[in-house]
Amino acid sequence: MFGLKTTLKALLCSALLLASVAAAPAADAPNVGITAEFPNAIEGLTPSLISGESNKLKVTFRNSGKTDLKVNLIIGTISESDDFSNVIRNLTAYRYATTLKADATLILPYTITMDLPSREVGLTLLADITDSTKNHFPMVVYNSTVTFSEPIQSWFDAQLIFLYILIACIFAAIGVFFKDSVAPESKKASKKTPSMTPEERVAAEEKSKILDEDWIPEHHKKSPHATKRR
Ligand SMILES: *[C@@H]1O[C@H](CO)[C@@H](O)[C@H](O)[C@H]1NC(C)=O
Ligand SMILES: *[C@@H]1O[C@H](CO)[C@@H](O)[C@H](O)[C@H]1NC(C)=O
């Protein structure tokens, strides 16, 4: 009787233990592959982020499991590149609460906007994923070095645009000068040429006008001077 009770107790215990072991696989990390794609990334080189600008990453989740999951949020930290536990900045957490279906792929955007002087830093991005029983799994999206750089390119663009405007203004000024001073001279000269028939003269004038106006900005062509002369 006593022996049977002990045996039953032992059986019950092992049954409970088995049940808990059987329940454990539910908390196994989901079978999800995650990749982060950086803007303008070059294969084999450390990804580069532009300081102060919106760097839009594309995060791809591949669920190879048989159950639906949920991507709740992505959080991130910037750390010293030689010591990832030394966090310099916390990045904005993005909340998605998007379903990641079984055997499917999901692409989510993640934007990093941060002012940092040009340097190499450690970047860690974690996604919080939950399964059907609301177990949370922090999963690594990215955990490696990136380079922050100053937005040199945009400065260069601004300078180029300024240069173009300056050149356009100089040409416009030259155009106005030539129309006012040189053009009347050549017209007078052609009038004095006796060997030209009136038709030839008109043709020559038309030709010189076309040549003249070729490089003059559109809005100057219809100036009152031009119409008066014709
Ligand atoms: C980042 O956030 C954690 C907790 O959320 C905080 O303890 C830490 O001080 C923050 N670090 C920086 C550099 O802001
Ligand atoms: C990220 O990488 C660093 C250095 O390689 C490592 O110490 C750290 O544990 C990693 N973090 C995660 C969340 O995997």
Automatic annotation (TrEMBL):
UniProt signal peptide: 1-23
Family: Belongs to the IRC22 family.
Transmembrane helix as UniProt keyword: yes
InterPro entries on file: TRAP_alpha
Membrane-topology descriptor: Single-pass type I membrane protein
Keyword terms of this UniProt record: Endoplasmic reticulum, Membrane, Signal, Transmembrane, Transmembrane helix
Bias (Basic residues) ranges: 219-230
Annotated Basic and acidic residues bias: 198-218
Function (record text): Is probably involved in a pathway contributing to genomic integrity.
Disordered: annotated segments: 185-230
PANTHER family membership: TRANSLOCON-ASSOCIATED PROTEIN SUBUNIT ALPHA, TRANSLOCON-ASSOCIATED PROTEIN, ALPHA SUBUNIT
Protein name (database record): Translocon-associated protein subunit alpha
Intracellular or extracellular location(s): Endoplasmic reticulum membrane
Taxonomic source organism: Modicella reniformis
Taxonomic lineage of the native organism: Eukaryota, Fungi, Fungi incertae sedis, Mucoromycota, Mortierellomycotina
GO cellular-component term (any): endoplasmic reticulum membrane
Transmembrane segments: 160-178
Key word Transmembrane present: yes
